[in-house]
Each structure stands twice: as structure tokens, then as C-alpha cells.
Amino acid sequence: MADICQDDAFLLHKQWSGDLSHKFCFIFCYQEDTEAVNSTGFACPEPGCQREFVSANGLERHILKGSHQYVKPAGTDVVKQMWVDKCNNIGSEYKSVIDQSVISGSEDDSVVEGWALKKNRKVVRFSPQIKIFLKNIYDEGERTGKRPYYDDLCDRLRKQRTENGTKMFSPAEWLSVSQIKSLFAGFASKQHSRRDIPHALHVVAPDQVDVNDVELRNVLSEIENWEIQENMSLLTDKILSTELDPFHADTCN
């Protein structure tokens, strides 16, 4: 059995045979672990590593070896770090958006004159054929009292065919629901205006007025008297002007 001697806190054989690198590696690891256990002041500069050492030599050996001891961070720490990263990225993203908008705005600085003015509304005229078709549907609804569904009318305009089997209306003549509503409103307003014309033009004759009020009769009599006096005054002025005019008098003689 080989003799064993003690070197500090490490037991070492007096005689070694074979590869000596295993011996030095064993000593190196043992010394590093021993210093880490009794650590008091040399902390590892690697972020997240929790190892500390008594001497600077132990710290150097630990850094060269790279055997860092990381502690899994808590969930709250992870959330805080994510929030910090998010806040830091907001400024850079906002700045990049502003820079892009400035660049895009500087590329096209030409503004068309009158861009803010109200555009002229395009007037769409309905074809006579589609007006007659929808007018017949409107009159039929007025007679029967059944109001048509505008969605069904839109679909009917697209599918309506002639006797030959061809489509009655081209795609350019198809109307939307709002257009059909406005056209039906025009039919209704014209119909109501025609109904109101006879009543508006009805004039009552004076002899059909039943005058039974005494005050009204007095007013009418005063108006008649005033008209008579006015006519008499005009006639008197005319006679007097004729008598005073010498030219007119010589002509009469």
C-alpha cells in the first residue's frame, strides 16, 4: 500500500504514475470548491452567477474554468425585466415612426390646389326603361297595399329577363338599395303633389260666401263708398283741368 502525506487540506500520494494532468486538475477543482465554501468577498462578475471566493486566485481560476453557478430568477423578476425592456423600446420605436413620417412627407411636398374644397356631387341619371319598370312595381304596391322589399328589388333587377331570355338590364343600370329608395320617394312625392293641386287651385266665388256678419257687411259698404268717392274726385279733377286749359278750350270751340 502506498504512503499518503497531507498537503494543507489535501491528501496526496507520494508516488504518482501515469498521466499527471489528472492530478493537477483534481487539485485545481478541489481548491476552487474549498475557497468558494469559505467565501467572504470576491464575487464573480458574470451576471447571474452566485459564486464568491476568498482570494483573487480562486476567482481567476473560476473565471478561466467558466463553471458559473446560476440561480433561476423569480417570476416577478422576469416580469419586471420584461416591463423595463418594453419601456426602453417604446422610445426607439416612437422615434423611428417619426423619422419615417418625416422622410415620407419630405418626398412628396407637392399639394394639389383645391384639395380641401368640396367635390362636385356626381348626378346619376336613371334610364327610362328602369324608371318605367320600377314605376309599375310602385303602382302595383299602391293598389295592393303591399310594400316591396328593396333588397328583393335589387336582386330582381339583376335577374330580370326579357321574352328572348336575355337580361333586361345591363350591370351599369343596376341600382343599390339607397337608389331604389330615393326613386320610390320621388314617385311618392309626385303622387302627393298631384293630389293636392285641385285643392290648392279651388277658388271660392264671391257670391258663394255666406255673409252673415254685420261687421263684415259694414266694412264692405265702407269700401264701396270709398271707391265711389274716389271715382267722383277723379272725374271732378278731370273736368276742372279741361276747363282751365286754353288750348283744349279753343279746340272744343
UniProtKB/TrEMBL annotation:
Domain of life: Eukaryota
Example GO molecular function: zinc ion binding
Coiled-coil residue windows: none
Record keywords: Metal-binding, Zinc, Zinc-finger
The protein, known as: C2H2-type domain-containing protein
InterPro entries: Znf_C2H2_type (IPR013087)
Signal peptide: none
